[in-house]
Amino acid sequence: MASELKPTHIIQSFKMLTGNTRTSVIFEPLWGIPYTLYTFYLSLYMKEQGITDTQLGYLISVGFIASIIMSALGGFFTDRLGRKKTTIIFDLISWPGSLLLYLISGNFWMFALAQIVNSFSKIVGISWNLMLVEDADPPEQVAAYNLINAINISVGIFTPLAGILVGQLGIVNGEKILLVFATLSMTTMILWRNYFYKETKVGQEILTERKEHRQNRSKKVRQLNFGLLQSLLKRPLVCMALTISILFNAYIPIGTFQSLYYAPFLTEVLILDKSAISILGFVSAVVMLLVFSFLTPRLPHFKRFNSMALGIFLQIIALIMFIIIPPARFGLTILCVFLFALGYGVTKPFMDSLLPEVSGGKERAGIYAIHNTAVSIFSAVLGFASGYLYEFNPNLIYIISISFLIICILFLKWLTSAQQKTMEQR
Which residue from 57, 105, 273, 407 puts its CA 20 to 30 A from 426's CA? Predict the structure, then answer.
C-alpha cells in the first residue's frame, strides 16, 4: 500500500492519499485562500464599524455558545444524514451564509448573527473530518492533516495583498471585497468537491443500519452516547488525548494568529502600521509552509508526543516575547512570529491526527461531538472573559494562552509515560 511508505517530503505525502482524503486536500485551497485573507482584517473591520474590545469578546462568546449546541448535534446529523450530505448542507449554511451576513453587517447584532450562522461549521467539523480520515489508515491521516495545514498556512503568503487592498481602499471597503471573493470561492469549492465525494464505508454502514432499524433508532442513539461516555472513562489514554486536543483547540481562537485580538494587539499595543502587519502573515505562512513541507514528514510518528511538546514550548517562548517586547519594534515582532510559526507548524498536524488515532469505527462521530462540544464550552467562557481582560490589560490574553499550553505539555508527558507502560505490559 502507498500509505506504508514513509514520506520524506510533501509531494510523497500527497501521493499516499486516495479517495475522499485526496479529494479533500485537492479542494482545500479554494477554502483556505479566501479564509486567510478575510479573517486577517475581520476584527479591525468590526472595530471600524463601532465594535468595542469588550463587544469583540461578546462576539467570540456568542459564536462559541452557539457552537456548543451545534457540536452536540453534530454527531446526530452526521450519522442521520451521512457524512457527505451533512458536509454540503452545513458547509453552505456556515460559510457562504455567514460571509454574506458579515458583508452587510454594520452593528453588533448583525455581527452576532453572522457568528451564530458560522457556528454551523461545528457540525461540518465532524462530518468533514470523517470524510477526510475515515477511509484512511493512521500514516495517511497524518499526511492528510499535514497537507491540509500546509495549504491553509501557505496561503498566508497572499496576506500582503490584503494589506495593499486595505491600504488603498481602507479597512471597510477592502474587507468587503475580500468577503465577496471568499463567498464565491467557498461556494464553488463546496459544490464542486461534493461532486467527487463518496460516502465513507462506516457512514454507509450506519445509514444502512438506520434504514433497517428506523423505529428503534432514537433509543439506540441515547444508549450509544451514554455507553460512549462510560467507555471513555475506562480508557485513560483516550481521555488524556481528548483533554490535550480540547485545551489546544480552545486556545487557538484566543491566543494565536486566528484570534480576533491578534490584529488589534499588533496595531494598538505593539503600535504597528495596519497595512504593514500583513507582512507578518507572510512571514508566518512561509515558515509554517517550510515546516509542513520538509520537517513534519521526516519526524518519526512514534515520537509525535515529543514533537508536539517541543512545538508547544516554542509557542510559549513566542507568546512571552509578545508580552515583553517594546512597542514599534517590527524586527522583534518578526522574530516572535517566526518562533511561533515554527512551534505551531510542528505541533498542529500531530495534534489534528491525535483524535482520529485514538478513536475508531462507529464511535468516532460521537467522540468528535464530545470533543467539539467541550472546545466550544471552553472557548465560549474564554471569549466572554477575553473582552474584559483585553480592555483591562491586553497581555492577559497571552498569559492565559501560556497557561493552557503549559497544561498541554504536562498532559503530553503523562500520555507518553502511560503509553510506554501500556507497551511494556504487552
Answer: 407
Q: Give residue 104's identity as a one-letter amino acid code.
A: I
- Find out whether 134 and 201 touch, Cβ atoms under 8 Å: yes
Architecture of domain 19-425: Up-down Bundle (1.20)
Q: How many CB atoms lie within 10 A of CB 416?
A: 17
Reading the block at residue 392, the C-alpha cell is 483591562
pTM: predicted TM-score of the whole model, two decimal places: 0.75
Mean local confidence (pLDDT), 141-168: 85
Neighbouring CB atoms inside 10 A of 360's CB total 11
Residue 298 contacts residue 8 (beta carbons within 8 Å): yes
Contacts of 121 (CB under 8 A, 6+ apart): 70, 90, 91, 94, 95
* Alpha carbon distances (Å) from 329 to 176, 298, 326, 333, 371: 30, 35, 6, 6, 39
C-alpha to C-alpha distance for 348 and 28, rounded to whole angstroms: 17
Among the ranges given (8-17, 39-48, 184-193, 354-363), the one the predictor scored with the smallest mean pLDDT = 354-363
* Residues 67, 61: Cα–Cα separation, whole Å: 9
Mean local confidence (pLDDT), 216-225: 48
Q: Tell me: pLDDT of 140 over 80.
A: yes
Q: Output the CA–CA distances (angstroms, integers) from residue 192 to 122, 147, 249, 267, in the order listed.
A: 21, 20, 29, 38
Residue bearing cell 503549559: 406
Cβ-Cβ contacts under 8 Å for 230 (sequence gap 6 or more): none
Alpha helices in 17-52 (DSSP H): 19-27, 29-40, 42-48
pLDDT tens, residue by residue, 90-106:
999 999 999 999 999 98
Average model confidence (pLDDT) for the chain? Answer: 86
